[in-house]
Amino acid sequence: MPVYEYKGMTARGKKVSGVLDGDGLKAVKTKLKREGIVVLEIQEGTAGRAARKGEITLGTGGRVRLRDLANSTRQLSTLLSAGLPLMDGLNVLVEQEEISGLKRALSSVRDAVREGSSLAEALKGNSRVFSQLYVNMVSAGEMSGTLEITLDRLADFLEEQARFRGRFAAALAYPGLMTVVGIGVLFFLFTFVLPRVVGMFEDMDQQLPFITILLLAMVNVISSYWWAMLALLGGAGYYLRRYFRTPAGKEALDGRLLRLPVFGGLVRMIAVSRFTRTLGTLLQSGVPALTALDITKSVIGNTVLATAVQRARDNVREGEPIAEPLRRSGLFPPVVVQMVSVGEKSGELEKMLLKVSDSFDRMVETRIAGLMSLLEPAIILVMGVVVGFIVIAILLPILEMSSGMR
């Protein structure tokens, strides 16, 4: 069933817009008329056109957040657990969904299922919304007859990812804001305020202190060539961004991140937590180990660790347990290797992996909180040193002039 984008007006003159699915243009117009909406403009949505090609294209504002996807997954699991057929469950989701991008994707999935595709095949045609991990877990759930349980686990996984990202963003928000404001204030001082304040020193017929001479030189350079500095920074940022998107650049950056003195351990813990949670969730849902390692490699977020996981996958295919290649790589903490080894021997690998992930998530939160508690005073200290330097450089010649007059 195609999806249509419309713009209209209510009986009170209020302009409205949205998306609506129907058997055709006439049916959608009739539905809108019953709701008291006068149609001003209507056309088939990009999702409707793309659905016939087996893919989804999100328009402006169509980005789907993890939390929204988790909510829809949880709702579908609940509907299936209550005995509702899959098609009816998808119809309910499409009808009640308010996020336009997700509504289009769900509508495309529903249409594909109605035409005879399995749910996993329908999701595969909407790869911009549903990841490879999502599709494989659903496929395993369909094959094992436990789709509602798998969807519930998938919702847990997505919600945990969303919570972690939210906590991480919240921890960085205040230091990031302070840094941006501080840089903006300093830029304003050096380009607009200080040139007028210290300009009088250039005409003074007396020996200026070294700190004042240094400030004058800095102000002259920054006020005269700030545009060149911004262009240089922009060009360097563009080049580095292009380079780090190449395989060699990405590998070099990821390797350097792991070797950073303070933040390297944090980067490693985040990647290991993502590895263990993803692998544990996939194995728990019945995804084969080799497929699970393939998917985990693509979502681990670090090229160096992903290469180690790929080597582990190759060794597992040859009959070796997962723990041994992880130990040989030297990139995974000993506790992770030991827990994986114990899980393989006891037959509870997925449970051990999820326990490791929970433990590392708590460690990451503690480490981030500690770093942020140090970073905030460090930013204030740097700002204080810079402002103090400016104040002393301006006050010293004024004090010398005052003492000379006396």
Mean pLDDT: 81
Extended strand count: 3
Question: How many individual helices?
Answer: 17
Q: Uncertain segments of ≥5 residues (pLDDT<50)?
A: 46-62
Please state the CA-atom Rg, rounded to the nearest Å. Answer: 29 Å
Task: Tell me which oligomeric state these chains represent.
Answer: single chain
Termini separation (Å)?
A: 91 Å
Q: How are the strands ordered across the major sheet?
A: 2-1-3
- In terms of DSSP E residues, the strand content is 5-15%
What's the SSE pattern?
EEHEHHHHHHHHHHHHHHHH
Fill in the keyword field for this structure.
mainly alpha; 3 strands; 17 helices; 406 residues
Overall description:
The protein has 406 residues and is mainly alpha-helical. Helix content is 75%, strand content 6%. The chain has 17 helices and 3 strands. The chain has helices at residues 25-34, 46-51, 66-81, 86-96, 100-114, 119-124, 132-144, 147-197, 199-202, 210-244, 247-258, 263-284, 289-299, 303-317, 323-329, 334-346, 349-405; strands at 3-10, 15-21, 37-44. Strands 2-1-3 form a 3-stranded antiparallel sheet. Strand 1 and strand 2 form a beta hairpin. Helix 10 (210-244) runs antiparallel to helix 17 (349-405). The radius of gyration is 29 Å and the shape is flat. The termini are far apart. Residues 46-62 have low confidence and may be disordered.
